[in-house]
Amino acid sequence: MAGKTERFIVTPQPRLEEIPAHHDAARVREELGTPYIYMASSLVPEADMYFVLRHIKNVPPDFKPYVEPHKHDVSHFYAIIGELTYEVTLEDERHEVTGPATIFIPAGMTHTIRPLRGSGYLAIVMRAGKYEVIAP
Questions:
Q1: Alpha-helical regions (H) of the chain
Q2: 19-127 under CATH 2.60.120.10, yes or no
Q3: How many whole angstroms separate alpha carbon 78 and alpha carbon 94?
Q4: Which segments in the chain show pLDDT lower than 50?
């Protein structure tokens, strides 16, 4: 007989669904690999957070941007793990960030992110709430 809390223990699932139009998810899956959802309300209905992890073996040379500038109605952060370098734009300031590093993005802040080089992991953690994009 299954216990009352067994449903809180889940296996990560590939994130295959399309996300808002400001992301080119299909191209990124093809060029960087499939990200995995480790926690979301789709896995555990009571989950009040969203956690995705992508293993990037090697960023292709001249990797083109895949995320348009946008903002969310919840705060979130990116964790860059390994020898991976990302270009991060917060409001209109660009930063080149090499892991290990974490980037916090407050709710309502315009941002975009793009891998530049290296290998490692990108983790995304978002608070619960609506994930609709707010036009910048």
A1: 25-32
A2: yes
A3: 15
A4: none
Annotated domain spans of the chain:
19-127
- Determine phi and psi for 24, rounding to 5 degrees: -100, 70
Give backbone dihedrals phi and psi of 63, rounded to 5 degrees, phi first: -60, 125
Q: What is the tens place of the pLDDT at every residue in 59-71?
A: 998 888 778 888 8
Tokens (6 digits) for 40? 């979301």
pLDDT of residue 105: 96
What would the two tokens of residue 99 be? 């892991």
> Do the beta carbons of residue 129 and residue 54 sit within 8 Å?
no
* Cα-based distances in Å from 51 to 45, 85, 126: 14, 20, 7
The answer to whether the beta carbons of residues 56 and 120 sit under 8 Å apart is yes
- Segment (H or E) for 105: strand 101-105
